[in-house]
Amino acid sequence: MKSLEGSAWLDVSFSLNNYRPQAVDEYGMTVLNAVSSNKDAGLADFLFTVTKTENGIELKGIEGTAWTELSFSLAENEKQAIDQNGMITRY
């Protein structure tokens, strides 16, 4: 994943295995029960999970998003932009 603004990370990558969610916040990969309590006014305050499903990708917004769930499929090397309001067309 690439972040254009609001996070401490520019790029973060990980493997999605066994349909287990990976939590991501403004600092990068995290564990849901070990989310950083550090808050930086210069960063967006968000938390979501990414899960590989049979049909593609599922995102669950936990904190700092207007969306609670986004699901979509991606072809190899295809991109999907998201922001705090949901899926967008800008990359």
Describe the structure.
- The protein is mainly β and 91 residues long.
- Strand 1 and strand 2 form a beta hairpin.
- It contains no helices and seven strands.
- Strands 2-1-3-4-5 form a five-stranded antiparallel beta sheet, with no helix packed on it.
Write the layout of secondary structure elements.
Layout: E1 22-25, E2 28-30, E3 47-53, E4 56-63, E5 69-72, E6 81-83, E7 86-88
Antiparallel strand pairs: 1-2, 1-3, 3-4, 4-5, 6-7
Euclidean distance between termini CA atoms: 11 Å
How many E strands?
7
Overall residue-averaged pLDDT value: 90
Number of domains: 1
Low-confidence stretches: none
Give the helix/strand class.
Answer: mainly beta
Global morphology: globular
- Into which percent range does the helicity of residues fall? under 10%
Question: Largest sheet, order of strands side by side?
Answer: 2-1-3-4-5
What oligomeric state is this?
A: single chain
Major beta sheet summary: 5 strands, antiparallel
Give the DSSP E fraction (strand runs of 2 or more residues): 35-45%
Rg measurement, Å: 13 Å
H/E element order: EEEEEEE
Number of helices: 0
Core attributes:
7 strands, 0% helix, mainly beta, five-stranded antiparallel beta sheet, globular, two-stranded antiparallel sheet, single chain, 91 residues
In short:
This protein has 91 residues and is mostly beta strands. Helix content is 0%, strand content 35%. It has strands spanning 22-25, 28-30, 47-53, 56-63, 69-72, 81-83, 86-88.
